[in-house]
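Milestone M4 deliverable, item 7.
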Amino acid sequence: MNRKIPAVSIIIPMYNAEKYIGECLDSILAQTFQDFEVIVVDDCSTDNSRAVVESYVPKFEGKLQLICSDKNSGAPGIPNNMGVCLSRGEYVSFLEADDFIKNTTYEELYPIAKKFDADVVHCERYHRFNSGEKEMFIEGYQSGELVKEPTLVTENLSDRVKELYNRRFLWNLWTKLIRRDFIMGNGLRMIDANAHDANYTCCLVCSAGRYVRVPNIVNFYRVVETSMSHRKDDVSKTIHKWINTLTKGFTCLDDLLNKLDFYKKNPAVKFLALETWVRECCGYLTSYYAQIPPYQLDELIRREFEKFHDNPTLTAFLFSRMNVLNVNLNHQGAMIQQMNAHIQQQNQIIRQQQEQIQQLQAQIQK
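Output delivered:
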C-alpha cells in the first residue's frame, strides 16, 4: 500500500551536531502543521549525533528517517542531494542541524506556496544569533525594499537575472520552500563545495516559473565558529576551496542554462547570470590575496588553473571577462586623466583669482 505523500519534506544534513540537533528536531515536533516527513542525512559524524537522532525516531511516529553516508563529503551539498532523492513531499525544506524554526513555519509558508502555485517561496529575513548568546538580531542582507505581503517575483527572466546580479535574493537555502517536482524536473543538484546554497539559489532564480517573496521571519540561524562556513583555514587551502567552488558552481549553472530555451535565445542574459556567480566567488577569493606573498599566490593560482583545460567554457568566460575589465579600466583611466586636467585648470583659475584679490586688497590699503 502506498504511503500518503506528505506536504513538506524537511531535509537536514548533519555532521557532528550533537549539541544542537535535538533543538532542531524539537522545533519540528512543535510545528502546528504536521503534514511532513523529516530526513536527516548524517555525513559520517564522529560524535554522538546519530544516537541523538535515533532517540527522536519514536517521537516522530514514522515521520523521521536517519540516513548515513558511506563516506564524509566535507560539505552539505551531497547529503542534501541524497535527502531530495529520498524525499516524497510536495515541497522540500532544507534546514541546518544547528538551527531551528518557528513553530508555525509550515503553517505559514505551505498555504502561500499553494495559493501562488509557487515553485519557490522565499523568506527575505531571518533571526541570527551567536552560539552561547541569547541576544538575537533580525537579518536580511539582500538589497532593495522588502515586501510587506507575499509577492510574486517577475516572471521576466531577463529582469529577474538583473535582480540576481543586484543581490536581491538571499543565498541561504533554509529561507526557502521549494517544489520537489520542480527540482527533479530540472535536474537541480547542489555542488559538493563551498557556497552550495548560493549556487543552488542562482539555479532556482534563473529557472523557476513562479517565485514568491514573503515577509515571514521563521528561521533561527545559529552562528557556530567551528562550522564549515565560519571556521578559519589556512589561506592557501581557503583559496583552493574557493577556486574549486568557482569551477564546480560555474559548470553546474552553465549546464542548467544550456538546457533552457530562454538562455539559448538570450546569451547576454546567460552571461550576466554566469557573471553573477563568478563575481561572488572572486569577491571571496580576493579578500585573501593580501594575506599571502605575491610569489606564493602566483604559484598557487597557477597550480589551480592547470585544471582549467577540462573546462574550456569557464576559461573562455574568464578570458573575455578579463578583457572587458581591462577595457573598463582603460576607459576609467582616460576619464581620470580628463578629470585631473580639469582640476588643474580649475586650480589655475583659482590661483589667478587669488592673485587678483591680493592685488585689489593692496590697492585698497594704499
